[in-house]
Amino acid sequence: MRFHVFVAVAALAMAVYVTHGLWQQPYDNVIAVNVGDQAFFEWVLSYGVHLLRDGGDPFFTTLMNTPLGVNLAANTSITVYAILFAPLTVLAGPQVTFVTILTLNLAGSAFVWYLFLNRWLVRSRVSAAVAGLFCGFAPGFVSHANGHLNWTSGWIAPVVLWWLLKLREKGRWLRNGLVLGVLLGAFFTLAAEGLFFTALAGGVFLITWSLSRTTWPEARAALPTVLAALGVTAVVAGAILAYPLHMHFAGPQTFKGTGFNQRHYAEDLGSYFSFSERSLAAKAGLGSDLAPNPTEATSFFGLPLMILVIASLIMLWRRAEGGRRVTVGAVTVVGVVFLLLSLGPRLNFLGNETDIPLPYALIQSLPLFDSALPLRFALVLVGVIGIVLALTADTLLDRTSVPHPAQTAFAAAFAFALVPIFPLPLLYGPRAPEPAFIANGTWKTYVPEGGTLSALPFAINVAADGQRWQAYTMARGGRQFLIPDGYFLGPDIDGAEGKGRISAVPRRTDWLFLRAALYGHVTQVTNTDRAYARADLQYWGIDALFLPPTVTGPTGPLYRAALEIVATDLLGEPERVDDVLVWRIRPGTDPVDR
Question: What is the pLDDT of residues 443-468, one digit of tens each?
Fold first, then answer.
């Protein structure tokens, strides 16, 4: 028990170390490389408060992207987090809830992997602890800590695998199937894509393990119990997920595929042997920029670790016998399968896409695979490598079977492989402070019940302030306002081809404001622009627009002065209210031609 506590404290300490920049000033600091995703998850956490206070649909809302709304089932709605942590959101705001969940995710992933490995695979708790800490703070998961509350929920995989392995317990098929069904129903809202990967990896492992001549008798004996338990799991999970799955696949504002290019978000083979830019190796000048962005650096295990894993597999295979050898082989198969899937439809090497086709090209249009980003399959390799490290350390710590020189050599190899990938803290920067116009509720004077209000520019992933202001208002409760646009995944133009895209389909007026904010471009506004704006503002039902004193972009403040010039030219002179500029909008009338 004391060792369990020690591992838990160590995991929590590492998680706080990684996220400490946000903890220093949670209301002022924001993740520097992914402000959009943090704003989205803070919005979802506040929406949980709104659901509990005012009711509504957990999987669809028109508060954002009015009048069409957003299909939250087709996005990462983290509904369970939003509900469970609603009291904290009310008490401290979504900013604190976000960093709390992020920290607990990282620590929990390391600790639960430790418990899983200690229970199912190794005798030595030290071996399980080393591998568990690797799984929780592997470069890929630290990378996803840049804004992703879904992908940092790495503890989900060992929990699901734990109960999957328990399904063969005789006499407990009903209980085990029931528990796994409830877990799958809850985890779907937290990390649907990760749950899919876990199920796929578990299936590959069990099939490979069961088909071995050595383990086939054991698998055949357990099959009736496992099938009965899986039947219960299917019924329970199906009942819980009937509505969410309907909304995901057939609800309003749903879509097929994703808003991201799968060929762009495919793993570069060279990245497996490179180091992340947020690792100790990067401090020594050995970091790599092969990832498509800092949040999707999903592998980056480094050459020393990859060599250690290969050497470990060879040693384990030679020393293992019977079922242990089959387990090593099945884990290896899972690793190879997911490594190939992560490379996407064509081989990329050291930043260059080749013409060499890969297996993913055959399945990229299939349901579920068409919504996945190939490089994220590399996250399964974290669990695979963690298992290999645990088995290797467990073998080496057995002094009766391993010569002392071999133990020393492998211990040095562990240090040489793991120290360079030790994570650096997340980068952070300032966020725009909440305007008094919003915080004091002055906005209510300008927007009727059920009305629409927007900051300038309209909310989008690269300019998410408007979404934040709505989130903070939801967290406080009371009357709410609607916003146009927002950062989410939705259908492309009219959803005609069922393809997904990031945020709403842009209208002319969106781009007018966004171009000024992002690039400082001052458009010479014409009456044609005003005519389009009248139609757009009426379409959104906007009652008022406001310009806060600071506008945050993906890398810092945006061009507020240019935005004010364009908005004033288009809409006329604003009112100065509290600390913002406000334009009242009469739908269908404003802006007036000049």
Answer: 999 999 999 999 999 999 999 999 99
CA dihedral angle for residue 518, residue 523, residue 528, residue 533, rounded to 10 degrees: 30
pTM over 0.85, yes/no: yes
Q: How far is CA 239 from the centre of its chain?
A: 25
pLDDT of 493 above 80 = no
HSE toward the beta carbon, residue 394, CA cutoff 13 A: 23
| Per-residue pLDDT band at 169 (split at 50, 70, 90) | very high
Q: Residue written as tokens 């490389």?
A: 33
| Cβ neighbours for 64, distance < 8 A, ≥ 6 positions apart | 43, 70, 459, 467, 470, 482, 483, 485, 486, 488
Degrees to nearest 5, angle at CA 376 with 371 and 379: 140
Distance CA 510, CA 564 (A): 14
pLDDT at 400 over 90: no
Extract the runs of DSSP E, i.e. beta strands, from 415-565: 428-430, 452-455, 489-491, 500-502, 542-547
**For residue 478, how many other CB atoms are within 10 A of its CB?**
10
CA angle 426, 427, 430 (to 5 degrees): 130
Report the C-alpha gap between 571 and 549 in whole angstroms: 18
Residue 137 to residue 114: CA distance in whole angstroms: 12
How far apart, in whole angstroms, are the C-alpha atoms of residue 275 and residue 297? 10
What DSSP designation does 542 have?
E
Residues 407 and 215: their CA atoms lie apart, in Å, by 30
Tell me how far the alpha carbon of residue 382 is from its chain's centroid: 16
Output the CA torsion sign for 200, 201, 202, 203.
Answer: positive
452-455 and 542-547 beta bridge pairing = parallel
Residues 461, 485: contact at Cβ < 8 Å? no
Angle between helices 303-319 and 322-342 (to 10 degrees): 150
Please give the structure tokens belonging to residue 317.
Answer: 């295979």
Other C-beta atoms within 10 Å of 24: how many? 10
- Cβ atoms within 10 Å of 385's Cβ, excluding its own: 23
**Cβ atoms of 208 and 157 closer than 8 Å:** no
To the nearest whole number, what is the mean pLDDT of the chain? 93
Q: Check: CB of residue 374 under 8 Å from CB of residue 380.
A: no
Compute the average pLDDT of residues 548-555: 91
The closest of 153, 177, 160, 285 to 225, measured between CA atoms, is 177
Confidence at residue 495, expressed as pLDDT on a 0 to 100 scale: 46
